Amino acid sequence: MALISSGFRGRRRSDPALPPGQYLTNGFPVLSAGPTPRVPLDEWTFTLSLGRGEQRVWNWAEFMALPQESVTTDIHCVTSWSKLGTTWRGVAVDTLFEGIDHEFGFTMAHSYGGYTTNVPLADLLGGKAWVAWEFDGKPLAAEHGGPARLLVPHLYFWKSAKWVSGLELTPNDQPGFWESNGYHMRGDPWLEQRYW
């Protein structure tokens, strides 16, 4: 069952900053498919699974020691709300892949709580995605995916997996949780790729 916050209101308008079918909100609606995981920082890890049994794993202290970036971007939810000019801080996915040889072109994002979503690697690299731990100058709240979530702002927000625990490289594009339930495999808001 999805949970919706009281900030779930907005208005449709004709605005070139908004993808088709979206309305602007000033709030930050909370939508989740299940209970909110509470992950203590001393238990948090992020695992990059490369295939062939290879992995890179960072604990919270190691993750925070990586180069950090500040990002200002618009976000768009498949349920039709958009929030413009959001500010985040985190580690670029490019940083996590530095010095790594890989042969697969797809990933499955895994989250604490069991959520998964597929994202082509091309949509994560080249300055397109981050593992974000801060929103609007404060540590990311658990209901918004804290302690860290994937941030892939050029795709619908379900691709920005909350409570992210890792990325698994895969040889094929395999559906994650929402994709297995009828959502589009890629989710480009400008193309209105909401459903299959």
Automatic annotation (TrEMBL):
Residues 34-178 form the Oxidoreductase molybdopterin-binding domain. Residues 1-20 are annotated as: Disordered. It comes from the Bacteria. Signal peptide: none annotated. Gene3D superfamilies: Oxidoreductase, molybdopterin-binding domain. InterPro entries: OxRdtase_Mopterin-bd_dom, OxRdtase_Mopterin-bd_sf. Pfam families: Oxidored_molyb (PF00174). CDD domains: arch_bact_SO_family_Moco. PANTHER family: OXIDOREDUCTASE MOLYBDOPTERIN-BINDING DOMAIN-CONTAINING PROTEIN (PTHR43032:SF4), PROTEIN-METHIONINE-SULFOXIDE REDUCTASE (PTHR43032). This is Sulfite oxidase-like oxidoreductase.
